[in-house]
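Take a look at the protein record below with the fold in mind.
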Amino acid sequence: MSEFFYTLASNNHAAKYRHLQVAPAAGSLGADVTGVDLNRLSEAGFVELRQALLSHQVLFIREQNLSVEQLEAVTLQLGEFGREPFVETMPDHPHVIHVVKEADEKAPFVFGGAWHTDWSFQARPPAFTLLYGADIPPYGGDTLYANLCLAYDWLSPKMKEICEGLNALHSPERGYGPAARHNDLLENMTVRYGNVDAELRAHPLITRHPETGRKVLFVNPTYTVGIEGLRPDEAQPILDYLFAMPTAPAFTCRMRWSKGTLAIWDNRCTWHNPIADYHGSRREMYRTTVVGEAPSR
């Protein structure tokens, strides 16, 4: 895209907290959190953590030592577990996905390796996603994030007017439908393909964040498959622009992983994209989600 995009440093400014140290990662979104042990964090500390998450949209909480059970406990501090469709969870932990790529896997493909919002086709998509790095390559495997509030703000007044009257169609068909076999390349994860018709769902194309009140561009290239009431050839030019614009560098941040880092992002107003650049190295992570609300205007 040739347009010049920008945002203001004040969009992601630092704030002082009693129980956390928070350093913004970019002018768009994201922050590193240090000086906290999540296994010992008080109730007041978790209140501040949620405030920081709503402010920065994605947090990287460094130098943690979390078992699977402790990750579950941290997740429940933010709300109830979300539903994990299509991907097999851990046998004794039905709300935890073991995201692992071994060093000897044949294909460089990685789980979730495209811009997306987690499970946006659900009636109540996740409010938050938590991802803990148990074993991290020495370099590579960064995750990109995009701010969908900034994307909405960038739209022209007329485009906002058009989009606010539309519903987008969300479906898992491309990733998990009967013909979507690319996930077979995940040698150490089990994907359950199947009939995805029951998961086709319409959500407002522009939503209002239920906690911050900000308006959000609620579409994503992985799960948004059309616009309700428009023919595919009418909808696609609109979606092509809406899919491209949020990935402008000014609206994104790139977060580097380290062992013991827990990432938490607000799934209601962000995209993320894991980078497949560590083939030949081992990476092991654990993922949970917190159920959100039905998206609304």
The CA atoms of residues 169 and 208 lie 17 Å apart. The radius of gyration is 19 Å. The chain is about 20% helix and 25% strand. The chain has one domain: 9-291.
